[in-house]
Amino acid sequence: MSVPEKQLYYSPQEYLALETQAEYKSEYHSGEIFPMVGASINHNRITVNLCTILNSALQDSNYEVFMNDMKVWIPTAQTFFYPDITVIRNLPEFYEDRTDTILNPCLIIEVLSQSTQNDDKSGKFDAYRSIPSFQEYLLVNQYHFQLEQFSKQADEQWLLKEYDESDVKLQLVTVDLTIKLVDIYKKVI
């Protein structure tokens, strides 16, 4: 009895059909599907802390906050990613009228892990930058106080600010909000 050969290339529609029925999440990049690993307790705490802060501050504004089950489609990279946190301005724009895949993030936050940090810092950031609405990217280290903030400048360049002390405050660029790092890392460190 022969073993069926594993399919090497999937169309975006094939990926979405598989993802709808899958027991676990996977990301899609240029025809390939990559299973996602589970997140640690610190990863979850940081994500919940940030979502709570953002949702509370933005609830009466024209911004909306989504957690890690909302996909982002990046057409130029032919990629579907699941950011840890996504913020949109105004109404969500959906990929092919799917309510689980948005096109218009303005702020994306990724909580880094050993297995994802290289891709979050390079490949994903390269892809996210091609989205016209995308203005700000935060990379949060889950192991110690360290946060990198990239904000889009008028001339299509990105400004990097680094934070690595518990008593500093992060000033978001996309939304008018200041966050203490100690609040992001509550119950983590």
TrEMBL record:
Which lineage is the organism of this entry classified under, starting from the top rank?
Bacteria, Pseudomonadati, Pseudomonadota, Gammaproteobacteria, Thiotrichales
Q: Which domain of life is it from?
A: Bacteria
Protein name per the record:
Putative restriction endonuclease domain-containing protein
Taken from the record, one Pfam family name reads: Uma2
State the species of origin.
Thioploca ingrica
Question: What positions does the domain Putative restriction endonuclease occupy?
Answer: 13-172
